[in-house]
Amino acid sequence: MKTRFNTYDIVCVIAELQHLVGMRVNNIYDIDSKTYLIRLQRSEEKQVLLIGSGDRFHKTSFEWPKNIAPSGFSMKMRKHLKNKRLESITQLGTDRIVNFQFGSGEAAYHIILELFDKGNLLLTDFEHTILYVLRPHTEGDKFRFATKEKYPHNRARESGVISKEKLSEILASAKVGDQLKKVLVSNLEYGPAIIEHVLLKRNFPNSTKIGKNLNQNEDIDRILEALNEAEDIFQNIKPEQIKGYIIQKKEERPTSDANSTTVFYSNQEFHPMLFQQHLEMTHKEYPTFNEAIDEFFSSLESQKLELKAVQQEKDAMKKLENVRKDHDQRLVALEQIQTVDKQKAELITRNQELVDKAILAVQTLLANQISWEDITDMVKEASLKGDPVACCIKQLKLEINHISLQLTDPYAESNESDVENNDNLPSMIIDLDLALSAFANARKYYDQKRSAAKKQQKTIESQSKALKSAEKKTKQTLKEMQTITNINKARKTYWFEKFFWFISSENYLVIGGRDQQQNELIVKRYMKPTDAYVHADIHGASSIVIKNPTGNPIPPKTLNEAGTMAICYSVAWEAKVVTNAYWVWGEQVSKTAPTGEYLSTGSFMIRGKKNFLPQSHLILGLGFLFRLEDSSVDRHKDERKILTANEEDAAILAEIDMGKDDVEVEILDESDEDELAAQSENADNKEVENADNNEESTDSDEENNKFPDTQIKIQHFSGTKNIITESSEIANEENNEDHVFYLGDNKPVVIKSNQKNRSRGNSESSVKQQKNNEKAEIKNDLKQQQVKRGQKGKLKKIKEKYKDQDEEERKLRMDILQSSGTGKEKDTKKGKKKKDGSSEKGSKKPPVKTIKNFTPKEISEDNIDDEDLTIQTDIDMIDALTGIPVSEDELLFAVPVVAPYNTLSNYKFKVKLTPGTAKRGKAAKTAVAMFLKERAIIQREKDLLKAVRDEQVARNIPGKVKLSAPKLQNLKK
């Protein structure tokens, strides 16, 4: 299969791509480490140029899956090439090297693409000094490809019209027996396809070999004519006349009906013209060569899946054919055994006297205690003297108490009628048991013949059943392969699957880094200020991020699950040590140390207070999520939802604020309601006094309010399990204030904080607190205004870039880009007005402080990055994944997931993982095998589970594990 460009392909594609010259670079993406997309634009016209190191470059209209994070090369190209104009696309000499120039003069940059050997991609400046190289290496002592080195343009080969003398030298230097086409391809730049084309037109087939069926003196002129035609093809390229052709191969694909096949056409080669050697082959024609290349490479992966399926289907059919052959060979072998045993028995019977004498002679020698070597010598001497008994003994097998006699039919010559009727027996060497007589040996062979006849009869009887069973298995295999191929084609790889990940019980996406680089990537690229950052209280653990697109407070259960994940994906798993985890908001995570030093990769500074989570056991679960078809999504809409206070009982309430302590829950009778109101008023008055007397305590209280240390304690519940309803006023209060809930029988419950100082006060304390807040903000602003080391040059560039921007335009841009600074100023002003207004009116009700709550701002779709939209879309797509499929669902594919075990409690397929000794690959196979034997599993689920590769299942298992599940021991047995 052809997978890279030759020289003629390069010339044709460059001619076709000349219309891209003059377009500007909009953005650059990478598909993988060797393939890059350059998005070009000119007014309303948009094009995408694909560049693959070592294999190809062409215009594409196919939607290629981009890498989640741009590579270093992509970032470097974006920095230098963005908004630059594509000035030229040229080939260096006649070599497979292409030069893309962006910009002109001293602002010019070059992308140099090498399409030979292992390939390479280089970014150079206008003097061809290498700024970035994809594959640094050296070529001998001449050329060194590394940054700050000059790219050597003189290495590209130059060739012109070949002369007769040069052709003679090429043919003379070749070895006798070398293929003519191979010799010319290695010495000329035309490529194998064109050389084969022009040679076939001059009646030189591929089998033409130098010194054998080629006469150099007579044929050199015809070869020279052929090469001149190849040169004309190169020189007379016209872009409007270039068409594209894909050469295909017909593949017969077995179907579930063993007697029929279907035809499958696999793409083999792509060419800019239909060559002589391809005229009789199946091919597809395209209007342009670019379209043919784009189609060829875009369908390459699906073609590989199809070819793999075809091969496995052929193997299944081969097994069926082997079963049939095996049965036929077994029947033939049993038939031959019966014939041979019958002949041996008859020969022994006809030579009964001779056989008995031979057995008696050997038995006599053994009885006289003569050694086996002497017996052998004595038999040889007797046979030389012409003893008829010794002459028929061919071998002594005394170790097994046997002898071998060569017996012939004594009646064959005398009985002419038997000869005519073909009843005479051939001469045969027969093994005889020394412990048996001649007739007993004959009977033994007759018994063997009867046993073979019975086996033959049983084989014939079971043959039909065995073949039917083999055919049934083959049909099932073919059906499964077609199903799995379709599943793999439909399978979508989500962006978060490259990380550790799971979906929490309350439908939050939780992701974690596999290594330091991924930790850095997650925090820098994917973590927003509204997200939660979770980390185990141990060095070297994975950085866990809870995606929180709504900006609402993250429920405790999800935080607990993320904490379990953080602990399990750390050294605590191997050490089997239980530890704590903590969480903070995304805005508290920084890359800069207090000294201003930039931290190493994967290391972060946490500012502010850490919210510690309770200790979690090292228990994970392995399960499967199924991708639902859109019509089945509504059926599972509320499968993973946040349980509100209305829906939780008293036991669940005990876990509401798991990071907080010093809280009591009391159940009040109706007679105590008035007392509750009086207590709350007294508490208000005390807080006003505290605010007046101690200004610093207010600041410390406010810090505690953000991250209060509280503990929930349930004293008792009256009656049966009661539903708890939170009052709307209390819902917005601080968590360290007294909270009142009402049970189902209208009995109020109060949650009291044991802290001495309270934040709740009258309007006077509120105003004082606001002043303190303003002082703190001024201090923070002064700190931020101090220019850190290394930022002077950056500020200068920013000032130069935005010098013409007025205040109105700045505000508009900042609103579009979701500027956190502008939003905070507006929120602060609104908060002041609201608080001032409430104090002026003299409202008896004290102002309510709300916990920090992030709300997403409006985003302009025109200015948001494409990849951010993809991330948001994929987060929404988690609703289409379910762990509890029902028979009515239409399932597309299965996704393996490793998560805290309580997250998977409702999943249909799950197994518990704890630290153990089993390797994760074996554990994954065992788990899938157990799922496939589930009684409740349906055929579609079986097909989807079989389509998942073993490495995908085992990828997120943290290390050596122990599996725990019902009936697991039965499966192992």
UniProtKB/TrEMBL annotation:
Residues 873-963 form the NFACT protein C-terminal domain. Residues 300-337, 453-480 form a coiled coil. Residues 498-608 form the NFACT RNA-binding domain. One of its GO terms (biological process) is ribosome-associated ubiquitin-dependent protein catabolic process. It comes from Phyllotreta striolata. Residues 752-770 have a biased composition (Polar residues). One of its GO terms (molecular function) is ribosomal large subunit binding. This is Nuclear export mediator factor NEMF homolog. Residues 690-702 have a biased composition (Acidic residues). It is found in: Cytoplasm; Nucleus. Belongs to the NEMF family. It comes from the Eukaryota.
